[in-house]
Amino acid sequence: MKPPPFAYHDPSTLEEAISLLSTLPNARPLAGGQSMMPMLNMRFAQPDHLVDLNRIAGLDGVTVEPDGALTIGAMARQRVLEQHPEVARRCPLMVEALAQVGHRQTRNRGTIGGSLCHLDPAAELPLVAAAMEAVVRVAGPNGQRDIAFADFAQGYMTPEMEPEELLVAVRIPAQPAGAGHCFLEYARRHGDFAIASVAVMLVPDAVGRIAEARVALGGVGAVPLRLPEAEAALRGAPDVSRAVAATKTLEPMEDALVPAWYRRHLAGVLLGRALVIAQSRMGRA
Amino acid sequence: MSVIGRSVPRLEDPPLLRGEGAFAADISFPRQLHMRVVRAEMAHARLLAVDVSAALALPGVVAVWTGEDVATIPPIPFRATKLKGLEPYCQPILARGRVRYVGEPVAVVFAENAALAEDAADLVVADLEELPALLDAAAPPRDFDATHATEPAILRKSYGDVEAGFAAAHAVLDLDLSIGRHSGVPLETRGAIARYDAASDTLELHGTAKKQHWNRDEIARLLGRSPTSVHLFEGHVGGGFGVRGELYPEDLLVCLAALRLRRPVKWIEDRREHLVATNHSRQQRHRLRAAVDAEGRLIAIDNVFFHDQGAYVRTHGARVADMSAGLLLGPYAVPAYRATGHFRLTNKTPAATYRAPGRYEGTFVRERLMDAIAARLGLDRVEVRRRNFVPVSAMPFTRPLDALGTDVVLDSGDYALLLDKALARFGWEARQADIARRRAAGESVGLGLGFFVEKSGLGPSDGVRMSVDPTGVVELVTGAASVGQGVETALAQIAADALGVDYRCVRVVRGQTNRIEFGSGAHASRVTVMSGSATHLAGLALRDLALGTAATLLQAPKESLTIVDGMVCRADGPALPIGEVARALAAGTKLSRERAVPGLTTEGWFHSDHMTYPYGVHLAQVALDRMTGAVAVEHYLVAYDVGRAVNPKLVEGQIIGGFAQGLGGALFEEFRYDERGQPLSTTLADYLMPTIAEMPPLDVLVTEDAPSPLNPLGVKGAGEGGTNAVGAAIASAIDDALGNKGLVTRLPVTPREVLRLLGEIEA
C-alpha cells in the first residue's frame, strides 16, 4: 500500500493551482486527503501529478451573505464547520450530518469541497448540498462559474467539472425560518459510509402547514437523489405514508455486500423516521 | 502486603506512551532491502508460468524470486500433533504449479525501497489457468492433488454409549449451527526484518512474536543451519490474538534473502495483505444431536462438524478442530459423547487459532443447545444449565477426552456459585421484568447467556533465569513472549513477591532467543500459569540463596532474616541491600567459590502435565430494531473466575479487549467470498471490526473462588474468557428477543438476517 510514483506540487495561489492542473497531464488535486490518500495507497488512483491545495490561503472561509446564505470555502475542514456557530444557525442539517461523516480524526482533515467533489453516493455532505439546493462555485482557466448542485452531481462519483477546474466554494441558502430538518443514516458501524441516508427539510407557511418539502436520499442512487413524489405528498396536508411509499420505486445499485432491496427498504424506514423528527422541529414561517 | 493481587501500573507503558516503542516497522538496518510479495489473484488455478522480466528490469530492483528459486526449501511445518497424514498439505513458501487461495505468495521482489518493490511487484505477471474453487467445507471433498483429497483427516473422540443414550432419550435435539470466518486483526500487521551477520555467522530475525524458540528451531532446520546460529528478537508487538508470530512463508523468505543477498531484508505486511494472507479462523459448521431426559439433563451428544481449514495446513495442524472436538462439553456432565470432525481444505486463506480457538465455536454450539433444550422442555434457560453443571463435589473432574494432547481434567470450579454471582450482579431477575414490560409495549428485546469453561496453562515446561545485580536490580529472563498483554508487569509482580523486592526493580527480558535456551512464547493463556509459576519458584530459590548468603554477611541465623523492599533485614535492625548480597557472590569472591556457579542467580522451572480450566459466564441484553434489523447491545456482563488474579486491572483489560473481538465475530466481522473465491472483505471498510462506538456498556466481574490446585500460585489464564462466550450470549439474547424459537443458528448475526428472522421482509 505505497502509492505509485507521482510528482508533488504545492502551489500557494489558486491561479497557480489551476495553471498546474491545466498544463500537467493526468494531474489530480489534493484537498483533505481522506479519500485521495487511501485511493493512492491502494493504487486505485494513479495520477502522474498531485496538486496540493492545502497551502493556498483564503479557500477555507465561512461567510454570511446579505440574504443570509452561507458561503463556505472549499477547503474548510469538516470539523471546523461542525463547530461553527453560523453553520449551526443557518444550516443545522449540515451539523447533524457532519457528526456522521467518518470520525473526528478524519473530519479534522477532511474538507467540504473534497467531499463534494469525491461525490461518493453515500456521503453525507453531498446529500446536504442536494437537500439545501446548494450552488457550487468552480474556478478554471477561463474564470469562475456557478453550478446548481443538482447539475454538478451528474454521475457516479463524477462531478460536472473539467479536469483543470477546482471547486472553490459552495453557497448554501439559509434554512428558512420555522423549517424543520432531519438527517438520518444507517450504517453497520458509526462512521462508515451509509447503506442509506436521508435528509429532510420541511418549510412551513404562516399557519404552520408544510409549504415546501425537501426530501433527499443517499446511498440509493449513483448520486444523491431528490424524491419529488414524496415532496409533493408532503405539501399542504401531508401524507407521510404516500411519501414513504415513493421510495419503493427507487432502483439502488447492487453490490456484493449490500443487495438493492435492503438499501431501498432502509430508505423508506429512514424517511419515515426523519419525517417524524422534522415535523416535530417545524414551527411557523 | 503482597504485590500479587494489586492493580499496580504497567511497567511496559512509559515507552509506549511516549511513542518510543519498537514495533516491527520501527526496526531498520543500514543497506536494507525491502521485500514485496506478489500474491495469487485467483482462488484456484494452475500456475503455468511467472514472468518476472519487467520487474527485474526496473532500476533499484535487486532480485525477484518465484517458486523455482526456492524449491529446495521445505514447506512451512506444523507443531506436534497426534494426527497423521497432514504433511502433504503444508504450504510451500512460494507457490509452484498451482495456487490455492487469493493471496497465496507467488513471487517476491527485493528492491531498494518499499514503494519501488511494490511498483516492481505490479509488473510480475502470473499466467494462471482458473480451476473451480471449492468454498464449502461441508460439501463433499475433492482432489487436493493427484494423490490426496481435500479432507486430510477426520478427528474422532468419544466415550460412553452414545447410541444407547439416544435410544433412552426423552427428547432428541437436532441443530445445524455455523460460525462465520473471522480472525484476529491486530493494529500492527505482521513484519519481519532479517539480517545476516557474516562476521559471527549469525542469522537474526527481528519483528517476531509469540513463538520465538519454536520458530528459531524450524527456521534453522529449514535453512540447514544450527539453532544456535539463528536468533529471533521481539520488540513491541501490537496485538497477537493467535495470528501474529506463527511461522509464515514471509518469515522464511526474508531469512533466505538475507542469507543469499547478503543484505538485511525488511518486510512489512500491509493491511490488504493482512486480510488475505494472515491466518483466518473460526469457520465451522456443526450438526449437533443431543439426547436429554425429561428433566432436561444431557444423556448423550453427537457432535459432527466440518472445519473449514482454508487452502493449507499451517503451523497449528488441526488444533482448532481438535479443541472443537475435545472441549465442546464445557461445564456440563454428559454421560456419552461422540465427536466427528471433518477437517477439510477449501480455496480460502488458511486458518488457524484465534483467541479462544475451538471454544468460541464450541460455546456457541453448546449454549445454543442448552437454550434449545429449555425451549423444547419448557424449562427456564438458567435452570437447564444449572441441572447439567459438573458439581463442585466432582472436582477435579476427569473427562475421558483429550485436547491439545493432554487429558481433559477440570481442575477446580464452582460453576453454580459463579452463575449466582453473575445473575445477581447483572440484575437478571429485574431485567426480566423490565423486558416483559417493554415487550408488551411492542419492543423486541431479549436477555441471553453463555456459560463456558476456558482452558489455560498448557504445559509441559517453562523456565526462567533470575539474577540480582549489584545495584539491586533483578533481571528476569524468560522464554515467554509479550503480545502487549502485560507479561512484564505480571511476571515482575510474581518475582517481586517471592523475592521481597519492589516490582519496579524487576527487568523482564522476553522474546530473545539469544538470552535463554528454551521458551514457549505467549499463547494459549499459558504465560502467567507456566512462566509465572517458574518465576515464583525461581524467586523463592533466589530468596533462599540471598538469605543464606546474608546470614554469613550479617552474622545471624538465616531463619531470623527477612527481605523487605530489597533490603535483607535482621530482626534487631541491621540490614543489607540485596545488591550487596549479589556483590558478595560475584565471580572470584570467597563466598562464590562455595557454590557451583557464582552470582546471586538461579533458574526456576515449572512442569505441568495438565491444563487449568478457568470458567465464566456472559450475560447480554439486546434490543432489535424491527425496521433496520440493527442489534443494540444494551448491557453486557462478563463474569470470570481466574483462580487468582495477579493484577486485576490487567485481567479486566484482557476481558474487555477480548470481549470486543468476540463482539466482532457475533455481529460484525466476516471474511466473505464470492462464488469464484474472490475475497470480499479486503479492507477495514468491508471487514467490519467493532470500534469504540460499537462497544456496549460492559461490566466485568473477576472472581477467585476456585484457585487451581495445579500450580503454586493458584492462577488460571485470563486471556480468552472475554472472547469465549460472546457469540453464544449475543445469539441467545437475540433469540430471546425473537421468542426463543431457536432461530439464530449462524454467526455473525447481521441486520439483514435479523430482518429475515423477524419476518419483516422477504430476504
TrEMBL record, chain A:
The keyword Oxidoreductase applies. Pfam families: CO_deh_flav_C, FAD_binding_5. The keyword Transport does not apply. Keywords: FAD, Flavoprotein, Oxidoreductase. SMART domains: CO_deh_flav_C. PROSITE patterns: FAD_PCMH. Residues 1-177 form the FAD-binding PCMH-type domain. Gene3D superfamilies: 3.30.465.10, CO dehydrogenase flavoprotein, C-terminal domain, Uridine Diphospho-n-acetylenolpyruvylglucosamine Reductase, domain 2. InterPro entries: CO_DH_flav_C, CO_DH_flav_C_dom_sf, Diverse_Substr_Oxidored, FAD-bd_PCMH, FAD-bd_PCMH-like_sf, FAD-bd_PCMH_sub1, FAD-bd_PCMH_sub2, Mopterin_DH_FAD-bd. GO terms for molecular function: FAD binding; oxidoreductase activity. It comes from the Bacteria. PANTHER family: XANTHINE DEHYDROGENASE SUBUNIT C-RELATED. This is Carbon-monoxide dehydrogenase medium subunit. It comes from Falsiroseomonas stagni DSM 19981. The lineage of its organism: Bacteria, Pseudomonadati, Pseudomonadota, Alphaproteobacteria, Acetobacterales.
Automatic annotation (TrEMBL), chain B:
Keywords: Molybdenum, Oxidoreductase. This is Xanthine dehydrogenase, molybdenum binding subunit apoprotein. It comes from the Bacteria. It comes from Falsiroseomonas stagni DSM 19981. GO terms for molecular function: iron ion binding; oxidoreductase activity. Residues 18-132 form the Aldehyde oxidase/xanthine dehydrogenase a/b hammerhead domain. The keyword rRNA-binding does not apply.
